[in-house]
Design a protein that fits this description.
CATH architecture of one domain: 3-Layer(aba) Sandwich
CATH class of one domain: Alpha Beta
Shape: globular
Number of helices: 9
Oligomer: single chain
Largest sheet: 7 strands, antiparallel
Order of helices and strands: EEHEEEHEEEHEHEEHEHEEEHEHH
Number of strands: 16
Length: 282
Amino acid sequence: MHTIVAKAQLSPNVTRLDVSAPRIAQIRKAGQFVIVRRGEGAERIPLTIADSDAAAGTISLVIQAVGKSTKELVALAVGDSIKDIAGPLGHPTELIEKGHAVCVGGGVGTAVVHPIAQALSKIGVHVTSVIGGRSKEWVIYEPELRNIGDVVVCTDDGSYGRKGFVTQATEDLLKAGGVDIVYAVGPVMMMKALAELTRPYGVKTIVSLNPLMVDGTGMCGGCRVSVDGKAYFACVDGPEFDGHLVDFGQLADRGTTYREFEQEAAKRCADGDCRIGLSNKG
């Protein structure tokens, strides 16, 4: 069992849980993730390790509560426990050794770029983080990223930072020159737009993909993605890939496979039936 030692609300539907996981905290690297199971019979949920404290033996998990299982997780309180946390899984981020890296995070994706920016800064790379949200209350991890490097904040409504999308701010940086690589994490269409934006500049763009995952070992095939016309499994071959080679159309389509079941489970939970392990079919 993994005890929750701290909890914080980062935005209206995004929560950070600091959880006891000493062995993972010791060896995790930027870009890796864990698969979490709240209790016996519960859904397995992939979550990026947003940060860790090896001395305290804790890892930070940032969870966007959108469905039944994620709402169950964020309902846990300090002192409660999560039954299983498997990891670290996936390949660590491919870090450049020098130069200027732009780390772009959209929404909860900002928590995913945080460990990447953190790792780059530690080896002396100049980091500029471009982060966005619908409005000020949806912007997360700004203070942590400001401790690492430059930060550009974008909000859709202009209530904080500059008005507009992260793609527009990134384009300004590309036009100014000197960008060696872009790391992007966020909604599928945001990552696609950034990959198309950087392509004519010849700037390598790494995206972190979060397709449907079950076992985290490549056996279920649920996280299959197409990169450069070849099939890969995001859990074991990724989760990061060259954004210029990813088939984002296929990725978006596969992300809707279980939407009907997810909506039914969420409805049942809203009606008061949130039992762990409840089948979507009855």
